[in-house]
Design goal:
3-stranded antiparallel beta sheet
């Protein structure tokens, strides 16, 4: 007797990936419509922690993004190239640098807040408040695996 495959389009991992992909598509499309076509989905790993708290050291930024320092450093370089972040000397440690939003990065933050609010409203319209809150809790749990 053959067991049913767990590798299907109903697999949790597949659904998480595709839901994330769709969410990122909507976010980047709407940011581009507002004049920020340079923002890539991967930039969220750098930008969102900086939206919460600016002036982070690379190691702190990597920890909040849940990425390696090397990967985060590459993303910071890309964001720098697009004028969204800049590096400055760390006043507490002359050997270290801090990553901060530029004026353009702060503009993206304001646009992202608006777009993310609209997307959250669409999720609530589709799921309702209770199921959206349960989804958030479930996703946090998956992140802790």
């Amino acid at each position: 007797m053959r067991t049913k495959s767990r590798v299907t389009t109903d697999n949790v991992g597949f659904l998480l990936a595709k839901a994330g992909q769709r969410f990122n598509e909507l976010l980047t499309e709407r940011l581009a419509e507002r004049g920020y076509p340079e923002v890539r989905p991967s930039y969220g790993s750098v930008l969102v922690p900086l939206f919460e708290e600016g002036g982070l050291r690379l190691g702190d930024l990597a920890g909040r993004a849940r990425l390696s320092k090397q990967h985060t450093s590459g993303l910071v370089r890309l964001c720098e190239g697009d004028g969204l972040v800049c590096r400055s000397a760390d006043p507490d440690d002359g050997r270290a640098t801090r990553i901060s939003l530029t004026d353009r990065g702060r503009e993206v933050q304001h646009a992202a807040e608006d777009v993310l609010g609209q997307l959250d409203e669409a999720i609530v319209a589709a799921l309702g408040d209770r199921r959206r809150d349960a989804l958030i809790e479930a996703l946090r749990g998956v992140m802790e695996l």
